[in-house]
Specification:
The structure is a homodimer.
Chain A: H1 9-13, E1 31-40, H2 53-69, E2 77-80, H3 86-94, H4 100-104, E3 110-113, E4 119-123, E5 129-136, H5 140-158, E6 162-163, E7 167-168, E8 180-187, H6 189-193, H7 197-206, E9 209-212, E10 225-230, H8 238-266, H9 268-284, H10 290-305, E11 309-310, H11 314-323, H12 326-332, H13 339-354, E12 358-359
Antiparallel strand pairs in A: 1-5, 1-8, 2-3, 3-4, 4-5, 6-7, 8-10, 9-10, 11-12
Helix pairs in contact in A: 3-12, 8-9, 9-10, 9-13, 10-11
Chain lengths: 365, 365
C-alpha cells in the first residue's frame, strides 16, 4: 500500500540512486553497468517450475530463516513478493533487481536485497536461488567476488545440488556447471552510426558471447544499448568465464571509442544535429514513448561525454533510463496508467529535468 | 552580379516582404495567398514554344517599348532574364514572380514586375504574356481586377489573339477562352490531422477545382499547404470563374476551421505536442531540409493562430516559407550550394529566428 506521501514502503527503503547509477566505475562512459548472477538449487528438491505452491512457500521460508539468523545477511532485506503491490514488483524489475518471470506469480517467491540496489537474491525464480550483483562500468571480477561471498553463506546453511560430473545443477541445462551468467550493458551509438555495429556483434557472437537488448533476453536494442553475456557455463571455471567476458567487453569499448572519434572528426555537424534534436525533444515534447526517450538519452549520453551539453552528468542519465520506464512511472503515481497517460507523464518529467540542461557553445552555431 | 555587400541588384530593388506575406487579407489565418493570371498572346505570331530565339527577342523588345512609353507601366520594372544571374532567376521563382519554365531558357524571356512583389507579367513563358497578381488571404476579385487593368494597357498597345468562337487563344488548349487561372493556397493541417482531408479534396475536385501542392503543378503538398484552382477556362465569364473559386475556398476554409476546433477540443495535448516539437526542431536543429522546415512551420502557424507561441506573427511565418527555399538560400550566399550545406544554412537561419520565439504558458505543462 502507498504511504501517506504516495511512496510505496519497500521502494522508500531502497536508495533511489543505485550504486551502478552513479557512473563511477571503470569505462563507465561506454559500459553502463555489469552484472554477475549465480544460479543455485537446493539438493534433493525439484526445481521451482515443477514445485507446487506449498513447496515454493516452504523453500522461501527456509531462506527467510537463514536470513534472520545470519550475521552476514543482516544488512539485507528479506521481501516476500506477496507482500508487495503489483506496481512495486514491476518497479523492482525496472531496477534490474528481479525478473519479469519472478514477479509474475508472487506466491512462494521472495527476494533478498540490499539498500544500495547492487545485490539481490531471487528466490524461486527458474532456480531456487539466483544470486546477483550489479555494478557501475566494467567491474565483473568485483561483481563475481561479491556473488561468490553471498553464495558461500547460503550454501553453508542450505546445501546446493552439485554433481561431480556436471557441477552445479540448474533447472535449465544452459546454466548447468558454474551456474554463472555475467553480462555488461554497453552503449554503442558510435558503432551504430558508423555502420560498424554488425561487424562487432558478429565478432562477439563468434567469441562465444550472447548479445541482447536493454531489457535482456528476447528484447531489441533501444538507445544503442546492448547487453553482452557469456554463452557457455560449463567446462570453464567461474574466474575464466568472467575474465574472458571482461576482455571482450574491453575490446568492444575500444572499438566504440574509435568509432566515436572517427565520426566526430568526419561529421561533427551530424553529431551536433542529433544531440541538439534529442535535447530539444526532451526539453519540449508533451508526449514521449519510452523508446523515443531512450533514443534521445542515447544521443545526449554521447554528447555529454564530449561536453556538448551542460548540467547533465552520467548519474542523471543513468537514473533517467530507469525513471522513464512504464513500471516506474506507474509506481510514482501508485496506479496503473494507460500508455498515452504514461507518455505524457514521462514527457513532463523529462521537460522538468531538461530545463536545467543547456547545450554548450561547443555545438556548431 | 552581386554588389559589394553581397546582395543581387534586382532583388535589392524588390521589397523583401511582398504584400501577400503581410498576412492581412481576409481569411489569412487559413488562406495564405491567392493568385490570378491571364494568358494572352500576340495576334499573328506563333506561340513561344514554336518561336526561334530571334522572334522571342523581338517580342520581348516590343513589350519593352510599350513599357518605356506607358505611364500606367511606369511604376513597374522591365527585366530581361539574360541580365540576371541564374541564382537571381530562381529566387524570382521562389517568390512566385515567375515560373521554373520561364527562367530555364533566359534568351528572349523577360519580366515586368512591381516592387511590392504582387504583380508581374511573364513574357515568353508558354504564352507571350502571362499577367499575374498575388494577394494575401482570399481576395481573388481584387487580384482579377488588377490583372484585367494591366491586360487592358497591354492589349490596347499590342493587340491580342482572339477568336469569336473560342475567346483568347493560348498555346495550350486548357487555357483557351478566358485564359484565366485563379488559385488559392490554403493551409489545411486540421483537416489532415482529423482524417477529413481526402473527403474535402474529393469534393473540391467534383466542384471542378484542381488541387496541387505548394510549388504548383505536379508537386506534392508539404506543410499541409494545398493549392486550389479552376479547372475550366472556357464557357464562363472571368467574373463567374473567380466568384465560383472564391466561394469554394470559403467552404474549404470553414471546414478547416471546424476541424481545428474539433481537434483542439478532443486532443489539445496532441496539438501541444506537435507545436512544441516543431518549435524545438526549428530552434535547435543543426540541419533541416526544406520539407521538414515546412512541416514544422505548418504546426507553428496553427499554434500561433491560437496563441500557443509568442513572438511569431503571420508575416514572419509567410516570409520563412520563402526564405527557407533552396533558391533563396543560394541567393543569400550568392553561389550554388550543395544540399547538405543548404540544410545547415537553413537550420542556422531558423535557429536565429526562433531564439526570439517562445512557447506560451497556454501549452499543457
Amino acid at each position: 500500500m502507498p504511504s501517506a506521501d504516495g511512496t510505496l514502503p519497500l521502494l522508500s527503503r531502497i536508495d533511489r540512486t543505485a550504486e551502478w547509477m552513479r557512473g563511477t566505475g571503470p569505462l563507465a562512459d561506454i559500459v553502463l553497468t555489469c552484472r554477475v548472477r549465480l544460479a543455485r538449487n537446493l539438493a534433493g528438491c525439484c526445481f521451482p517450475p515443477r514445485c507446487d505452491d506449498e513447496t515454493l512457500i516452504a523453500i522461501a521460508e527456509r531462506a527467510a530463516a537463514v536470513h534472520s539468523c545470519s550475521r552476514a545477511l543482516a544488512p539485507f532485506e528479506f521481501v516476500r513478493m506477496q507482500e508487495l503491490t503489483e506496481l512495486e514488483r514491476y518497479a523492482l524489475v525496472d531496477r534490474y533487481l528481479c525478473s519479469r518471470e519472478h514477479v509474475a506469480q508472487p506466491v512462494g517467491r521472495a527476494l533478498v536485497l540490499d539498500r544500495s540496489g547492487s545485490l539481490s537474491v531471487m528466490i524461486n525464480e527458474e532456480d531456487h536461488f539466483r544470486i546477483q550483483a550489479l555494478y557501475s562500468g566494467l567491474q565483473l571480477e568485483t561483481a563475481y567476488r561479491v556473488c561468490a561471498g553471498l553464495e558461500e553463506v547460503l550454501e553453508s546453511a542450505l546445501g546446493f545440488a552439485f554433481s561431480e560430473k556436471w557441477g552445479y545443477l540448474t533447472a535449465c541445462p544452459t546454466n548447468v556447471g558454474t551456474g554463472l551468467r555475467a553480462s555488461a550493458m554497453i552503449h554503442l551509438p558510435g558503432l551504430t552510426e558508423t555502420g560498424r555495429l554488425d561487424e562487432v556483434l558478429t565478432a562477439a557472437a563468434n567469441a562465444g558471447l550472447a548479445v541482447r537488448g536493454l531489457y535482456g533476453e528476447g528484447t531489441e536494442a533501444h538507445g544503442s544499448l546492448h547487453q553482452f553475456s557469456n554463452q557457455v557455463t560449463l567446462g570453464r571455471s567461474e574466474e575464466e568465464l568472467v575474465a574472458e567476458l571482461s576482455s571482450s567487453c574491453k575490446q568492444i569499448a575500444a572499438a566504440e571509442r574509435d568509432a566515436r572519434a572517427a565520426l566526430h572528426r568526419k561529421s561533427p555537424l551530424l553529431l551536433d544535429d542529433h544531440v541538439a534534436r534529442a535535447y530539444a525533444t526532451l526539453r519540449y515534447a508533451r508526449s514521449v514513448t519510452s523508446r523515443e526517450a531512450l533514443d534521445c538519452l542515447s544521443w545526449l549520453r554521447w554528447g555529454a561525454e564530449i561536453d556538448l551539453a551542460r548540467g547533465l552528468d552520467r548519474q542523471t542519465l543513468n537514473e533517467l533510463i530507469i525513471w522513464i520506464r512504464p513500471g516506474v512511472q506507474q509506481v510514482l503515481h501508485t496506479r496503473r496508467l494507460p500508455a498515452e497517460e504514461r507518455d505524457v507523464l514521462r514527457a513532463s518529467l523529462l521537460r522538468k529535468r531538461f530545463e536545467q540542461v543547456e547545450l554548450s557553445e561547443k555545438l556548431s552555431s
